[in-house]
UniProtKB/TrEMBL annotation:
<protein>
    <recommendedName>
        <fullName>nicotinamidase</fullName>
        <ecNumber>3.5.1.19</ecNumber>
    </recommendedName>
</protein>
<dbReference type="GO" id="GO:0016787">
    <property type="term" value="F:hydrolase activity"/>
</dbReference>
<feature type="domain" description="Isochorismatase-like">
    <location>
        <begin position="4"/>
        <end position="169"/>
    </location>
</feature>
<dbReference type="Pfam" id="PF00857">
    <property type="entry name" value="Isochorismatase"/>
</dbReference>
<comment type="pathway">
    <text>Cofactor biosynthesis; nicotinate biosynthesis; nicotinate from nicotinamide: step 1/1.</text>
</comment>
<keyword id="KW-0378">Hydrolase</keyword>
<keyword id="KW-0662">Pyridine nucleotide biosynthesis</keyword>
<keyword id="KW-0479">Metal-binding</keyword>
<dbReference type="InterPro" id="IPR000868">
    <property type="entry name" value="Isochorismatase-like_dom"/>
</dbReference>
<dbReference type="InterPro" id="IPR052347">
    <property type="entry name" value="Isochorismatase_Nicotinamidase"/>
</dbReference>
<comment type="similarity">
    <text>Belongs to the isochorismatase family.</text>
</comment>
<dbReference type="InterPro" id="IPR036380">
    <property type="entry name" value="Isochorismatase-like_sf"/>
</dbReference>
Length: 172
């Protein structure tokens, strides 16, 4: 099937909203360039959305991270404008937790030659989706572009990259 680019949670709340960081803001141009490269080559690009409801603070995640974010339908839930423009016709996967089982099932059905991951946050949702996909597709080469990812902190970003590397994911 060729290559697939998975763009993880490039949403306003993780870039400049309630959980935004300067590192997340800094990767946006590189992620845009990566998406355009895949689109130019005719490869599939898919997007995940961290998706919570108003009762977020009552969930296990909300009790552990008591900052409302990515509430469905809000500005913070939407993709950053420059990324949203590129995602109009793409497949999108809303997920109420770190990894998207539905995405992993679809990737397994498509059985692509390669899968690359970019996005936010390296140490939470990126690593969850990468390792889940590795479990579903152990023989498919997986890549993470470290310049197109940012973690909660620079240190946790590096720790997540090391974890994925140790699980035979190519880090570029």
């Amino acid at each position: 099937m060729g290559k697939v680019l998975v763009v993880v949670d490039m949403q306003n709340d993780f870039i400049s909203g309630s959980l935004g960081t300067k590192e997340a803001q800094a990767i946006v141009p590189a992620v845009v360039a990566k998406i355009k490269e895949y689109q130019k080559n005719g490869d599939r690009v898919v997007y995940t959305y961290d998706t919570h409801e108003e009762n977020y603070l009552e969930t296990q995640e909300g009790r552990n991270l008591p900052v409302k974010h990515c509430i469905h339908g809000t500005w913070g839930w939407e993709l950053a404008d420059e990324i949203d423009e590129l995602a109009k016709e793409a497949e999108k996967y809303e997920k109420p937790t770190f990894g998207s089982r539905r995405l992993m099932e679809e990737l397994a059905k498509w059985n692509p030659d390669e899968i690359e991951f970019v996005g936010l946050c390296t140490d939470i949702c990126v690593v969850s989706n990468v390792l889940g996909t590795k479990a579903w597709l152990p023989e498919t080469p997986l890549t993470v572009d470290s310049c197109c990812c940012a973690g909660v902190t620079p240190e946790s970003h590096e720790t997540a990259l090391a974890t994925m590397r140790s699980c035979q994911v190519k880090i570029v």
